Write the structure tokens for this entry.
Amino acid sequence: MADSLSISGTTNPYQTAVYKPEANDRNTLTMTGYFQLLAAQLQNQDMSNPMDNSELMAQMTQMAMVQAMTSMTEATTNSTAINTQVYAAGLVGQEVTMAVTEKNSFGIETPVDVKYAKVEWVNFTSGSPTIKLEGDDKEYGLSHLVGMGRVPNPYKDSSGTDIEDNEPGEGGPGSEEDKTDKDVKTL
């Protein structure tokens, strides 16, 4: 059974969303439910062909392993969330480079530029931490963080034009003009 299902939207077939069923009493077997199922199985077994003890122990061991893995997954998830919050809180007062995004023709946000500013505060109430920069009304997610300090803009080439806007032969990275410049610099 798949953990999640990707589906396309009805208004925009190129924009996909992920459906992930949540655990509930109907689709999750708890340890209590397992013991109730085991008791019913033992009550209704055929006395001429009883259940094998090794099979019973194997089932109990498997159920204990599943429960231990579930607990470990929850602990790892909680630890990751705490580490993310501690990291985000440490950004307050620091100068950062934040990606500025625009929605493309498919409705997906793509980075187009960067913004340099100090982190004013971090908001933990929306689930994932969001960052508020000084002098900016927008809240940014941690995924928009390009780096600490003034990181060179990775979305513009050295001439200040958008990397995406360069056509072959227009002097962008990898063009003949760019190769010539690199050859001159190495001499």
Remarks:
- The helical segments are 31-43, 53-89, 176-186.
- The radius of gyration is 28 Å.
